[in-house]
TrEMBL record:
Keywords: Metal-binding. PROSITE patterns: VOC. GO terms for biological process: L-methylmalonyl-CoA metabolic process. It comes from the Bacteria. This is Bleomycin resistance protein. Signal peptide: none annotated. SUPFAM superfamilies: Glyoxalase/Bleomycin resistance protein/Dihydroxybiphenyl dioxygenase. InterPro entries: Glyas_Bleomycin-R_OHBP_Dase, MMCE/EMCE_epimerase, VOC_core. One of its GO terms (molecular function) is metal ion binding. Residues 5-132 form the VOC domain.
Amino acid sequence: MADFTFHHGGVSVPSLEQAIEWYGTLLGFTVEHRFYIEAARSHTAMLRKGPLRFEIFEVEGAAPLPDERRYPPRDVQTHGNKHVAFQVADLDSFLAEMEQKGADIAMVVRESFGRGCFIRDCAGNLIEFVEGVA
């Protein structure tokens, strides 16, 4: 079987500049490089935080994120990609930091199967953070 590793996740946003600022301020990502994808008519940036990469697309004429994609339990009712998830050491500390920074917290999960949360980026895209799972 072919060997591979994870490279990046990606989201579409209405404003690349606003997203770069949001991902930098709230999550500590920096711009690795910027480019234009002619076929998609997309101003694009690859953001990086340590080994993590996240690709942000500002596509000319793109439709806004539908409301049902903004809440995790409704989002999974539609087929397709859902979200990316990052691991945090301590959920409560992470939530306190996100609240202090004004993050839009969509949902907090504290269940026997695990703990985590979803936040919405500046365009409403869901990002999951899970506590200490292997």
